[in-house]
Design goal:
By secondary structure, the chain is α+β, with helices and mostly antiparallel strands. It has 14 helices and 13 strands. The protein is globular.
């Protein structure tokens, strides 16, 4: 991989992010009665999209918002401009990754129209999000935030609106936990503006159209597991190379499973909640491939997993896959609304590097230059540790972009333990383990889950 490319500046990147930051600061204080600094942020956003098809609408929206007279349609235009700018940043970063890895990216396809959505509920959601923009993050209180509750309750039963409803539900919960906004010492301006913009665009008819779905038949070769944990939910996302049975070009795909969880179940106990829903986790733990037959898959490379379409395959070493199959695979395309720098997670294979340690941070020094290592993303639900990464000689990871620089998140490493070469995987305990530390953590989680199930059963019996 050409790590030297990551040190080169990308034309226009800083300017685009500066415009986004200016708009995000305007949302902090709210757009009911904007101050001069907020007006400057709005104007900067409009200037950043000048010369694009959005130019006229965004210029009008920025002018109205600066005067405190923005309507819902104006807020939608501002959200679209912000999303387009971050989308351009995403595309520029991904182009640099393509150059560095030498792998092409798949082509995006137009989504299929969704069913008829309840226009009144979309309008109600848009109204609440507009009220948030007027009040600003510093002006939120429980009265403002609670306005989302009836909208969310009405949306959740409708499958066509569940995507937006889930986003609004999580967003409202974050805001409620932070009320009153005036007392907050630190406001997550970028995150809340991201959630606000995405939710607002999803209220536009057609924005929630479903991705094109086909089927996949062939061999699935897992590379590694990424775990996303929240207090009340957990998701495991498996990155893999898919080799079609018809001999066409291999491509990178993802398979994910998400489940609700009690906040007392952490660490290795997470696998007990995930395992029953996906046989692929066991295959990852055992170092096996999976044979897929007509498995639904989106154009963006997301497998809509069903164990009915998957069978146990032959042994498949992840590092052999990374060395042989990964370089020839096509990277997945990105859906329009997913074009955001935070969504970048590209599988890469690195070896022949030197590890540089600086306090608690690690850097891989490759022949082309240094690459920061993000060990904070390594899940506690597996045997992979900071120390194992520091002692490694080869790494399968996800290339990300964070805080203005490219970083690699390790999914697995090859290292030496007691003078013996071993591979350590972040998802090594996904299908169960005889490892002493993993077994101990599983036992503790088993006891906690058993108690919770017994209590739940007792409540249901009442």
């Amino acid at each position: 991989m050409r790590a030297d490319l990551f040190a080169e500046d990308i034309t226009g990147l800083d300017e685009a992010l500066t415009a986004v930051d200016g708009f995000d600061r305007a949302l902090v204080a709210g757009l009911l009665r904007p101050q001069p600094a907020q007006s400057a942020g709005l104007t900067g956003l409009a200037h950043a999209v000048a010369g694009t098809p959005l130019a006229a609408r965004v210029a009008e929206a920025a002018e109205k918002a600066a005067g405190g007279a923005a309507s819902e349609d104006h807020f939608v235009a501002l959200a679209a401009a912000r999303t387009a700018l971050l989308g351009s940043v995403h595309d520029a970063l991904m182009t640099r990754i393509e150059e560095a890895t030498g792998r092409p990216r798949g082509e995006a396809t137009a989504p299929e129209p969704a069913g008829q959505q309840a226009a009144n509920l979309l309008t109600a959601a848009r109204s609440w999000l507009s009220d948030l923009a007027r009040s600003g993050w510093q002006g939120i209180d429980h009265d403002v935030v609670s306005g989302a509750a009836p909208v969310i309750s009405a949306m959740l039963p409708d499958p066509e609106l569940r995507r937006l409803a889930t986003l609004l539900d999580g967003f409202a919960a974050e805001l409620a936990a932070s009320c009153p906004g005036a007392s907050m010492e630190r406001i997550p301006a970028r995150r809340w503006a991201d959630l606000w913009s995405r939710a607002l665009l999803l209220t536009v008819p057609g924005a929630a159209d479903v991705p094109v779905t086909g089927t996949a038949t062939g061999r699935l070769l897992p590379l590694g597991v990424d775990v996303h944990e929240h207090a009340t939910a957990v998701q495991a996302q498996i990155h893999a190379v898919f080799e079609p049975a018809d001999g066409t070009t291999p491509r990178l795909v993802r398979a994910g499973i998400a489940v609700p969880k009690p906040d007392t179940v952490v660490g290795a106990g997470l696998w007990q909640l995930l395992r029953p829903h996906m046989s692929l986790l066991t295959a990852v733990s055992e170092g096996r491939s999976m044979e897929l037959t007509d498995m639904p898959v989106t154009a963006e490379g997301d497998l809509i997993w069903s164990d009915e379409h998957a069978g146990r395959g032959e042994p498949a070493d992840a590092f052999a896959t990374a060395r042989v199959a990964l370089p020839a695979a096509t990277d997945a395309a990105t859906a329009p609304l997913d074009r955001h720098p935070a969504r970048i997670a590209v599988p890469v294979f690195l070896e022949g590097y030197a590890v540089q340690k600086d306090d608690d941070t690690l850097t891989f020094t490759l022949p082309g230059g240094p690459l920061a290592v993000d060990t904070d993303r390594i899940p506690t639900a597996g045997p992979l540790t900071h120390e194992a990464v520091a002692a490694s000689g080869a790494c399968i990871g996800l290339l990300r972009w964070d805080a203005g620089t490219y970083r690699v998140q390790p999914l697995a490493v090859e290292t030496t333990v007691r003078k013996k070469a071993v591979a350590i995987h972040a998802g090594g305990w996904a299908g169960g383990t005889t490892d002493k530390a993993g077994a101990k953590a599983e036992k503790a989680a088993t006891d906690a889950v058993a108690v919770l199930r017994e209590r739940a059963g007792r409540l249901l019996r009442k």
